[in-house]
Amino acid sequence: MEKYIGKSIVLGLGFGEITKIKPLDLKNQHIILSDQQVIDELAKANNIYKYSVKDLENEIVENKAILNEETLAIINGHIILIEDEEITDRINEIIQELKVDFVAACLKTQAEFIEIFDAMEDPYIKERIADIKDICHRFIKLYQNVDSKELSGIVLAIEITPSDILNFEANKVLGIISERNTSNCHAAILARTLDIPFVTAIDGIYAATDDADLALIDADMSSVIINPNKVVFETFKTKHQEYLTSKVELKKYIGKDAVFKDNKKFDVGVNIGNLADCSIALEVKANSVGLFRSEYLYMDLEDFPSVDYLYNKYLEMTKDIPGEITIRTLDVGGDKSINYFNIAKEANPYLGYRAIRYCLDHPEVLITQFKAILKLSASKEVKIMIPMITKLDEVLDAKKILKQSMLELEKEKIDFDSKIKLGIMIETPASVLISDILAKHLDFFSIGTNDLLQYTMAADRNNQSVEANYNPYSQAFINMIDITIQSAKRHNIPVSVCGEIAANKDFLAILVGLGIEKISVTPSALLQVKKVLANTTFEECKKLVDKVKKLESEKDIEAYVLSGKY
Amino acid sequence: MVKQTVEYTNNISFHIRPIGTFTNEVKKTDSSVTVTKNELTVPGNKAMQLLRLCIVKGDFVTIEVNGPDEEALLERLVKILLGGE
After folding, report:
1. What is the second-level CATH architecture of the domain B2-83?
2. Which of A77, A116, A117 comes nearest B17 by C-beta?
3. ipTM
């Protein structure tokens, strides 16, 4: 039995026998051809181009039932680019000039176009790299005459391609495992449309596994188990059965408003920070983003990004979200370090130089973010949220920098929403205790429960020895939330919760009872949260909180809430 | 010959789908079409070259049409460019 942890592209569970997809032979053999061979190679190439277009048109017809607008656009895009002849002309030219074989010419052409598109700033146009790769791989596959058998069971590949997925036997593929795919690649989009659990980023699994091995995929946990023992398999089968039952049930919440049993509405958004989050958000049709973590945009880089880079990333990652987007400015430091920020190693990083503390000392970093967010506000409903506030002066200084960012954009004649809403994360006890003052200067609060809990209880959330101290059912923590809500209500500003605790069905009832009207959860928890809300009423939650407020011990509170008897 | 310069105002760049519609429209006629952005001119029937122009919000783009149905064709092409599905 082997267990692997990867990254989930499409959530869900599946198990079955493995079918391995043989990778294309992309080793560039660079065979030098004779003049006659060049003529033959060109004839073969031209047949491949013609056949590719026919093949794609057939795929559209054969898969009509499962293709949606997005996936159809991908295939049509491929047809347009092949018929356009710029790629194919270049391949032919290389065969003729360098007298090399078709595969070498395809790989060279692919590399040339990737270089051109990689230099472009626009994210949508950059994505065409994927099309060019897909097209060239399709050509090579046809050239090498790779047997395209119909695939079933659990499909395993080094890198799965859109044409692999279009070759799946209808409803017979129960899961996909690959070593390298990205969450927004075309194969991922297709897998999502077909709703097939998909885990990627598992190095070495292809070589370590054989055809017909038994595989269990739990994409909800990003895990894959190969050849499980009997106990593990039986446990998985039970979980799988529950998954199938709840899947049908949870599906009905996709795209629906979150409402209580008595039809009272509740606002639930999602937290996103990377493309994997975005793809799941799209899958569950999230309507709004309550927390966009900006720091991940900085992590992949070698140096500070430009306004346009950030703006394009924000635009790309929120393009499928129709509603409001709350973007948190950089929360660097703490447990998230980025080399080029040059933040010295600290003894207590959580109590150190992080988030707004760093940004106010480096206004140029904050201005870049503000300008990118403001630019986005011209076309989307956007709010700005500042993390780690402990005093009013930080808010006032940030506001000055926001004003300056606006003036710069005005000079540059760039549109933005001049009435953009500015709020803060409430995640330090200090901010709770002065929330009455802060509320006068801000448009909203959002409670970051992970940090607020660790700072309130003085318990490191990553230290297992103090796990028992990191308990949300503490009167101190519940009071922190209560004080924040009361301050917000007094000043008539909205208050939401964007920490992980909001997805906990028992604690959610406390939050609702305390008066929270909006939460934001990890995208994979969205449907479950809607289901929990649909089975409860605001009055029940209110009753629960009335009772909780009378209890004094943490144990009593926890036991009472978990009993569900309220 | 007729030509028109327009500002591209869509949030999403001029991408493969509308480009496909654009080139198909050009291919249907006997007119010759060019598209110019920042002094770079490409033929209006070449999808990849249009893609490589990287037309994004705020760009000024000139479409030039030469041929029997130039007026009507220009009007249709501007509409496709700005329609930006």
Report:
1. 2-Layer Sandwich (3.30)
2. A77
3. 0.87
